[in-house]
Amino acid sequence: MNTLVIDAASRLEIVAACSGNRSGNESHFVDSSHSAAILDSVERCLKKTGLALRDIDLIGVGVGPGSFTGVRIAVSTGRMLSQVLGKPLVGIKTHLLYAASVNSGEGENILIAFDAKKQKVFGALYRKIEASEPPQEIVPPGDYPIRRLLESIDASRTTYMAGSGIERYRAEISGVIAKRMMLQDYIPSGDSMCGLVLQTYREDPKGHEDYNRVKPFYARRSDAEEARGLS
Predict the structure, then answer these.
(1) Domains of the chain with bracketed CATH
(2) Which parts of the chain register pLDDT below 70?
(3) Element (H, E) at 167
């Protein structure tokens, strides 16, 4: 199936497209606000893969948690394309999209963490069980102090780490986790992202027919919501 995947939950906006043995991705890091023109990235990515929008059979989107604006833009774009094209939409937690692409050995840990400000990260911890399967979730994606994630790591095995939260708390991590591999400016593989979306779809095709079922996962209230709650 010709597959298109969109994610903008971190400071990395990434679009991936796959068709058989052909794949392409369009990615760039953003400093602060995410661009609403993500459709331009979709167009460029499809061009690299030799596809047009009408050729897409399946759409995947990272639902977060992460940047509120980025998650909202990615999910809205995925839902709009699913509606217009009449194609199924698969929502997957962004952290799993990243972790599934990490080239770790069996039994090793994978920590994905995006800086969430307020002394926290949007993070999740996984363990690679089998090379051909998505990693096993140890700590689900959520809004945590970095120490909460570090305490859950099996320190006897190497931990692969990616995301802006790893860079933000590098000193604290280094003091706790000796066996570590920090993946700086990590960009997930387009092939891996498409493969995970396709595998998830095949497990329950009918469950992905209604794009309305795919919703953003923010993991915390926005600053505006917090302010309203205090007023």
Answers:
(1) 3-94+188-230 (3.30.420.40), 103-183 (3.30.420.40)
(2) 31-36, 223-231
(3) helix 164-168
